[in-house]
TrEMBL record:
The UniProt record lists the keyword Nucleotide-binding: no
Full protein name: Disease resistance protein RPM1
Domain Disease resistance protein winged helix residue range list: 54-125
A GO BP annotation: plant-type hypersensitive response
Presence of keyword Repeat: yes
Annotated gene: RPM1
InterPro entries membership: Disease_R_plants, WH-like_DNA-bd_sf, WHD_DRP
């Protein structure tokens, strides 16, 4: 019961934040400033930033994991004399320098260990990623009907604390390149008959 109340309270907070972002003039102005900050990013950083929105609210994003995913997703461009991982880490440092990502932890040598996205910046990233069909985030509390699983986005991220959470038998995601799950749902319950690979012909990243 305590967990349920806590989850419901967080849902109300998110709804309230959405309302204020839309209706509060000062926050609308802030939103325009944030949009300007995003548009000022070099093109090779924009999708790296948008990708960070697939992680849950307030989560610490591990450097190694983020770099591995950026590379696997094809978001990193080659540079002479550098490995793809080195380029990805340089991109991460630049996003921190641009203040769109925050450093959460560093190791003893001062290297970034984990980072996070500010809540308001994440709201912006979620909206832009959805509009550009770059990615979409679904929460378990939103339901799991067939329409819920129909998306033409290239990346789908599911956030759920329900271990019984499961998709319909024939999800429609023809353009899906990346599928990730954060929470307690497990593979055998997401896909009890195995991964429907014929329906995910473009899939290149699977994070469960």
């Amino acid at each position: 019961m305590v967990l349920h109340n806590s989850t419901e309270e967080w849902r109300r907070i998110h709804v309230s934040l959405d309302w204020y972002l839309i209706n509060n003039q000062e926050l609308n102005q802030l939103n325009r400033v944030l949009m300007w900050s995003f548009n000022e990013l070099p093109y090779y950083l924009r999708h790296c930033f948008l990708y960070c929105s697939v992680f849950p609210d307030g989560s610490a994003i591990k450097r190694k994991r983020l770099i591995r995913l950026w590379v696997a997703e094809g978001l990193i461009e080659e540079r002479d004399g550098l490995t793809m991982e080195e380029v990805a880490e340089a991109n991460l440092k630049e996003l921190v320098f641009q203040s769109v990502l925050w450093v959460k932890d560093k190791n003893e040598s001062g290297r970034i260990k984990s980072c996070r996205v500010h809540d308001i910046m994440r709201k912006l990233a979620l909206s832009m990623a959805r509009d550009e069909r770059f990615s979409v985030v679904r929460r378990g509390s939103q339901g799991n009907g067939t329409q819920w699983w129909c998306t033409d986005a290239r990346r789908l991220s599911i956030h759920t604390t329900n271990p019984q959470f499961s998709p319909p038998p024939r999800p429609k995601m023809p353009n899906l390149h990346s599928f990730s799950v954060f929470g307690e749902a497990i593979f055998s319950q997401l896909f009890p008959r195995g991964m429907p690979s014929l329906r995910f012909k473009l899939l290149r990243v699977l994070e469960l």
